[in-house]
Amino acid sequence: MSSYAVVLAGFGLVVLLTAWLPMVLRELPLSLPMFCVALGAAVFAIPDVPGVIYHPQEQLPFVEHMTELVVIISLMGAGLKLDRPFAWRSWGLTWRLLGIAMPLTILALAALGHALLGLGAATALLLAAALSPTDPVLASDIQVGRPGEGQEDEVRFSLTSEAGLNDGLAFPFVHLAIVLLAVSRTDEPWFAAWISIDVVWKIAAGAGIGYGVGLALGWATFHLPNRAKLSRTGDGFVALGVTCLAYGAAEIGHGYGFLAVFVAALALRSTERGSRYHQKLHDFAEELERLLMMVLLVLLGGAISGGGLFRGLTLEAVAFSVLAIFVVRPVCAWVGLAATTRPASERAVISFFGIRGLGSIYYLAYALGRAPFEAPDLLWATLGLTIVMSIVLHGITVTPVMRRLDRMAARPHSAANGNSPVAGSANSGRKARSRMRARSVRNSS
To answer: Which residue from 53, 139, 259, 261 could staple onto 206, CB 3.0 to 4.6 Å apart?
Structure first.
């Protein structure tokens, strides 16, 4: 049996399932990621399946670049779907999640890694930094709706914007782990260089380059003379071009590419916020993201059953994963959201849905490919178990929890009731058009 034929047939099956499964699973307490991991684990557990599935440590460049690709596409989709303009006050919960909850999460996870797993400071920090950001790929079920649809209540908006920004902001701590491992052998000064380059410069360069790319391409898309503007093509794959250009330009400029992609998407939306072409761009990015996500999660399931992903798993690692999912993220996010005016139910949902996923795999592969961290098998097993637990727990709970939250929020000034600023304006427009049509009918009769 040809391995190529089996891979081709398997890929075709994944493509078909990518289109079919979201519709089938919509009414069930199951998620597409859960199915993908289970499918991969089942298929690659069959002894006679041609081909070999590897442990991630044995294929670091492949793992790094594939997860990198799906994350940046997901970040573009997340940025395009946000209707709310970028502002300090209206993004208040996001800043709390990034500025308070995320550092607390890294500190708590690093302490757990040292105390429970016996890791050194640099390795414990790496594991904590990799697991600190919420994942933009696996969090689509709790994000806002398509551009212009007005489905932007505070919970969905906070989780979407957090996932868009914290992938880039976790990078300074990944670099810090690499720096600490290096200086432990050389004892050279490091703090000033880390602050100036890995924190200040790379964040500023990523945000600045992303903003410039987004504005420039927004002008080319919406404001060139009518016959020349990109939006006239109607092609959704323009979103892929914007994504790759923003990411590549930021990396060339030694900035954080993840941050640049999300900022570029926000800037592109700001140039012509009401255009329906944004939906075309978003839909293409979402479809491509879903396909790549399914492929990678099937491979993740295969790595569990056929690649020995959990070969370094210990009882301490299981305890670490349980605490990371059930205690660290919820508590740290709850502390970060304290003293806000949002209802306790909303703060609880935001705190609970700290989904871990493919972004965490990228960070670990990136760091392990650049420095000889201790116990890589233990790191992969712990991170993999945490991701699988997050996929299962959040996949089962997301549908009933969000439905209940929407029912509770069906009151004046709630986005679920269509009374957010965006939804309200859209509904007002529809009502006005309905009244005009009604008058026209009456006049004609």
So the answer is: 259
Tally of CA atoms within 13 A in the half-sphere of 398 that contains its CB: 27
Through-space distance between the first and last CA atoms of the chain, rounded to whole angstroms = 73
3 state SS of 413: coil
Per-residue model confidence as pLDDT tens digits over 269-302? 999 888 888 999 999 999 999 899 989 999 999 9
Kindly provide the b/e burial profile for residues 373-392, where b requires at least 16 CB atoms within 10 angstroms of the residue's own CB.
bebbebbbbbbbbbbbbbbb
Taking the C-alpha atoms of residue 266 and residue 56, their distance in angstroms, rounded to an integer, is 33
Tens digits of residue pLDDT in 357-398: 899 999 999 999 999 999 999 999 999 999 999 999 888 888
What is the residue extent of each domain of the chain? 53-415
Residue type, 231: S
- Alpha carbons within 13 angstroms on the beta-carbon side of residue 4 total 0
Q: How crowded is residue 33: how many other Cβ atoms within 10 Å of its Cβ?
A: 29
Distance set, CA 80 to CA 73, 94, 356, 425, 442 (Å): 11, 17, 22, 19, 41
Contact 148, 83 (CB under 8 A): yes
Rounded-to-integer distance, Cα 192 and Cα 183, Å:
13
DSSP class per residue in 268-295: HHHHSTT-THHHHHHHHHHHHHHHHHHH
Query: Candidates 1.20.1530.20, 1.10.3810.10, 3.20.20.80, 1.20.1250.20; correct CATH number of 53-415?
Result: 1.20.1530.20
Cβ neighbours around 103 below 10 Å, total: 15
Instruction: Give the amino acid at 87.
Output: A
* Alpha helix stretches (DSSP H) within 353-420: 358-368, 376-408
Smallest Cα–Cα separation from 325: which of 360, 284, 353? Answer: 353
